[in-house]
# Entry
Amino acid sequence: MQPVKRKNFSEQECPIARALDVVGDWWSILIVREAMTGVHRFNEFQARLGLAKNILADRLKRLVAHEVLRVVPAADGSAYNEYRMTQKGWDLFYVLVALRQWSDKWIDGACDATLELVDLENREPVKPLELHASDGRLITIADVTIQSKKKTQARAS
# Structure
C-alpha cells in the first residue's frame, strides 16, 4: 500500500488553501493549542498529545519552517531546546477560538468540556466571535461577497 502523498497548497491563489498548507492537519493545530497553553518541550507535546515521535518531529519542523513556532534554548539552562510561539503563531488564537466556539455549538457534548475560555478581567466566559464591517456593523455571510482586490496600477512616465 502506497502512502498518501500530501497535497501542496502553497501556490494556490486561495488564502484559505495557503493557510491550510501551513496548519491544515489536526496535529499541527493541536500542537499550536498546546504551545499556547505553555507546553514547550518535545517530550511534553508527545505526552500531552500521544502522537508518534516521528509525526511530532515532522509537524514541529513544519511549524518552525513556517515561523509559527521558533526553537530557543531551554529556559532552565539545560541542553534541551524549547518551542515558543511567534507572533504569527499567536495570531492563530482567533482560529482556535472560532473552532472551539463552532464545536460548542454544533458537536454533541463538546460544550460539556470542563474547560472554558474566560476573560481575565471580569472572570466571565468570552462572547462568540463576530465579524464586523469597517463601519462597525455586525455582518454575516449574507452581507459579504468575494471579489478581486483592487490593485494600484503603476503610471507610465
